[in-house]
Design a protein that fits this description.
Distance between the termini: 22 Å
Radius of gyration: 25 Å
Structural class: alpha/beta
Strand content: 5-15%
Number of helices: 20
Shape: globular
Length: about 550
């Protein structure tokens, strides 16, 4: 799978100062895959070690470790899997007891016959070994013939290990001078919209998107929109994208099968399984944003049955992966956060479908709640990359961070597909082909707006590597969903995927702040005017 981050990591690794690279990001964004891909494609030998034991206590992992130990004598491309608990625990013990962190590298080189000239060492979930985190810069500076990559899914060590982090910093204070300056840090996000297009095999459309021209967006609007609506449901989590890609590969291979026999088999299977989803001709209730759309077999002719069945199966597979990722977030929160905050973390995550795109209010969780009771849990979720915290600014001036109000913010999930999963969880599982029609229904406008806001925030963060903000007028009547620093300029982005293209909100903002550049993200053709960019929502990524 193509990721822009591959070359970003390689450039950092080959930097003249030879610094280790720490990749940060939420669970499920593909950090482990990215490190292993780089190791296998660009290095002769590599060792892969994980310090994460909390999620890896199965007998299968122990069996994998035994099998690896037996084959460790092979000097060609030696791999210590993350599942190998023995290796990780051994290194953690050495890090904890050694008087010199270099002992760890020596132990690895003694255990595995790798060639230092073009070799890589990978430390996964490094936040779980505080001593390794502290020593990382030292190890890179003192081992110029070995590259080092580390990954961290959390901004800090679990509560039980924070004391060890402080001890390690004191222990090696004289030996390791300013270790942070010796480490290159980068954040990894889910696939961006254009990476998604590339992953689905449309290299030509991907290259056209990279040209960042409004005339190209307009000429290929239907194609881009098709991918956009798929992206809203599938999202950018690599496992979900791969599941969809693999389903299309299987589908293409099946085209060689006799159509008649294939249809007969599919229909016989369908008769004994869940019916295909077909949207009722009656409009859903306007008050319900999670519609229960009942199946009506008679509304679909037999020639379309197989397509609906196949598409529904793909959706169900992707939803199951997304639910598993969300469940993992909940489990990780229980394992890693302080116990007094776990229930509040669960409550915050449960409220996100309702509160996405709005100022976060604990009163919507519990009318008696106070923000000070929930703030540590909110901060933990942001530190674990489970949520993006977007602050309101008191002034639309650069740098935005200087004008943020820490008491007013919105919370977003790391991926639009995860939000889609939560919004659809208790309702219909529509086919991908119907998504575009579904979001244009009046009763689904609120849901569609939430997804559009999540999409824009996600693209802005992953493309610009900056955290945006939002703006509210003093009267409270006008709000701009996204503000982003571009150089020394603040660019407002007004998001309106469903309504009138003449935004009074943006007019109010422009009159007050007189920006050099403003943007409308609507479902309309792209065009440029003096100081104003109008783009279809899928085109937001070209502003990077």
């Amino acid at each position: 799978m193509f990721r822009v981050a591959i070359e970003e990591v390689r450039k950092k690794l080959k930097h003249e100062s030879h610094r280790p690279v720490v990749i940060r990001g939420a669970k499920g964004t593909g950090k482990t895959w990215l490190m292993e891909y780089i190791a296998e494609k660009y290095y002769d030998d590599y060792i892969y070690v994980s310090f994460d034991y909390s999620m890896q206590n199965s007998m299968q992992n122990l069996m994998d470790a035994d099998m690896f130990a037996e084959s460790a004598s092979d000097s060609n491309v030696v791999l210590a899997h993350a599942k190998d608990q023995f290796i990780g625990k051994m290194l953690e013990n050495i890090f904890e007891t050694a008087s010199d962190p270099q002992v760890v590298i020596d132990a690895l080189l003694n255990r595995y016959a790798i060639k230092p000239k073009n070799s890589l060492i990978i430390f996964d979930e490094i936040q779980d070994c505080p001593e390794a985190l502290v020593a990382l810069g030292y190890l890179g500076a003192n081992n110029p013939n070995i590259d080092i990559i580390a990954a961290s899914s959390f901004a800090e060590a679990p509560p039980s290990r924070r004391a060890r982090l402080e001890d390690a910093m004191k222990k090696w204070d004289e030996m390791i001078t300013e270790p942070a300056s010796l480490v290159a840090v980068m954040d990894l996000y889910p696939l961006t919209f254009d990476e998604f297009i590339h992953a689905l095999g449309d290299d030509e459309l991907y290259e056209l998107f990279q040209q960042k021209k409004t005339e190209i967006l307009n000429a290929h609007k239907d194609q881009f929109e098709d991918y956009y609506y798929k992206y809203l449901t599938i999202g950018g989590m690599p496992e979900c994208v791969l599941a969809y890609v693999e389903s299309q590969i299987v589908d293409t291979a099946n085209q060689t099968v006799n159509n008649e026999s294939r249809t007969t088999y599919a229909e016989s299977q369908a008769a004994n399984s869940a019916p295909d989803i077909v949207i009722s001709s009656q409009p859903p209730l306007a008050s319900d944003t999670k519609q229960n759309l009942s199946p009506h077999r008679n509304d679909v002719n037999s020639s379309n049955k197989l397509e609906h069945i196949r598409d529904k199966n793909v959706i169900d597979t992707i939803l199951s992966i997304q639910k598993r990722i969300l469940t993992q977030y909940e489990i990780e929160a229980k394992l890693r956060s302080e116990k007094k905050y776990t229930k509040k973390i669960d409550a915050i995550l449960s409220s996100l479908p309702e509160q996405t795109g709005q100022k976060f209010m604990v009163g919507r969780i519990d009318s008696k709640a106070r923000i000070r009771e929930y703030q540590p849990a909110i901060d933990w979720l942001s530190g674990a990359y489970f949520t993006y915290k977007i602050n309101r600014v008191t002034e639309a001036k650069s740098p935005l961070k200087s004008y943020e109000d820490p008491k007013a913010y919105k919370l977003f999930l790391p991926d639009v597909g995860l939000l889609s999963c939560l919004l659809l969880e208790d309702g219909a599982h529509p086919t991908l082909d119907f998504i575009k029609t579904l979001y244009k229904m009046d009763s689904w406008q609120e849901t569609y707006l939430k997804l559009a806001q999540q999409f824009v925030v996600q693209q802005v963060i992953s493309k610009s590597k900056l955290r945006p903000a939002y703006w509210l007028s003093k009267t409270g009547k006008a709000t701009i969903d996204v503000l982003v620093d571009i150089g020394t300029e603040v660019v407002p982005i007004d998001i309106n995927p469903t309504g009138n293209t003449k935004s009074k909100k943006l007019d109010v903002y422009i009159q007050k702040n007189n920006p050099r550049l403003a943007m409308k993200a609507y479902n309309q053709d792209a065009k440029l005017e003096a100081g104003l960019v109008e783009l279809p929502i899928f085109g937001v990524g070209i502003l990077s």
